[in-house]
Amino acid sequence: MKKALAPAALLLPTLALAAPGQVDSGDTALVLVSAGLVLLMTPGLAFFYGGLVRAKNVVHTMILSVVCMAVVGVLWALAGYSLAFSPGGAADRFIGGLSWLGLRGVGGDVVKELAPTIPHTAFMLFQAMFAIITPALISGAIVERVRMKAYLLFVVLWSLVVYTPVAHWVWAPGGWLRGMGALDFAGGTVVHINAAAAALVFAVVLGKRRGLRHPSVLPHNVPFAILGAGLLWFGWLGFNGGSALGANGLAAFAFANTFFAPAAAAAAWGLLELFLFHGKMSGVGLASGAVAGMVAITPAAGFVTPLASLLIGALAGTASLLAVRLRPRLGLDDSLDVFAVHGVAATLGALLTGVLATKAVNPDGADGSLALLGVQALGVAATLAWSGGLSWALIRLVSLFTPLRAEEQDEWSGMDTSESGERAYIHADESSSLSPPAAAHAPGVVRPAAAQHG
Fold first, then answer.
1. What pTM did the predictor assign?
2. C-alpha distances in angstroms, 259 versus 60, 164, 252, 409, 417?
3. How far apart are alpha carbons 149 and 401 in whole angstroms?
4. Candidates 1.10.3430.10, 3.40.50.11600, 3.80.10.10, 2.40.50.840; correct CATH number of 20-409?
5. pLDDT at position 285
6. What Cα–Cα distance (Å) separates residue 323 from each residue in 16, 338, 408, 435?
């Protein structure tokens, strides 16, 4: 994360300010609350993705997100945080070291190079939430056909081999992209471009879902998708706002921008649907547009004005909608258009940061320029190449140990049954309300599986 503005430039002089290197209670409270908001985003993503798939796959789809909270959370404590943020010695430009393995030495003190006024543990926890949601984003491209064992093994490897180096490049004091002046306030490159590249590669390797008459399927539960988008938007305020690492004016800019950009993106998507493409404004379209705006403003949230955030959001909503409409013509089965939304919007946001950034918002940032645009483009290209290439290698490695995708019959019957042994919706036999209950339906008797449908 980029450093916050100097507190004296942001707060009234009558307030008591903590000097850099000392814990500030207000800054700490903001970051801890923001960590909780970002954690909420992963269940929100589960609802968003779960609502967009077919009913027979909703539980499995949601588990693909929720399981990252467990697995990646443990990995972060054991090794991920150290590899992402500890000093890396001779390799510090590219990867962190091992000094903080098992969170050894991560306590209540302040590490000024990372966060000048909050406890080290608070910074570590906040960063954990980013590491958790990033691989969960990948799952949207491979739902309705990926096996849980293969996905879990991939997530473990990807989190350590792909995510932690990119986080180090961009956010750690010695990272090479940070040293070049690349701006990524809250994860446009580290989270969204990184995940989108892996998602696209995984979808191509897996191949198309079986039995689809059309390149897209109708969402089985639009309210789930809208609820998920709402939870994401709520949590995203902490995702971006908390990245200021202080309760200050920079956080206020980031919070404001995280409202205005998604609003403009949702409006652009919905209005294009209504007046240009379908003659109707859909709930899924509004939700998807809002997500595109959240993604696009993420790299820019602490570097641009609210007016600029409206422009970024409107352009992101338009670009992502066009990408979603183009994707089926390319023959790609990125199930929930992860690349079309996260990849396209994050790339646009990163590049526009190079144009629209201003030191009037963040003196520790930079003003937009052709040179900054070039650095931003380099960061995007490097992350796409790194994540795409290594993800392909990791997927191939995983395939040597376990099948990547479900059997054909399991796809037809639904991943919920074959992979989780659960169903989202169990409907009672309609005839039971018209005739006396049979013995098979008596209390304590389990109905045969064939009688359960829905």
1. 0.89
2. 31, 29, 11, 44, 39
3. 10
4. 1.10.3430.10
5. 97
6. 49, 10, 29, 53
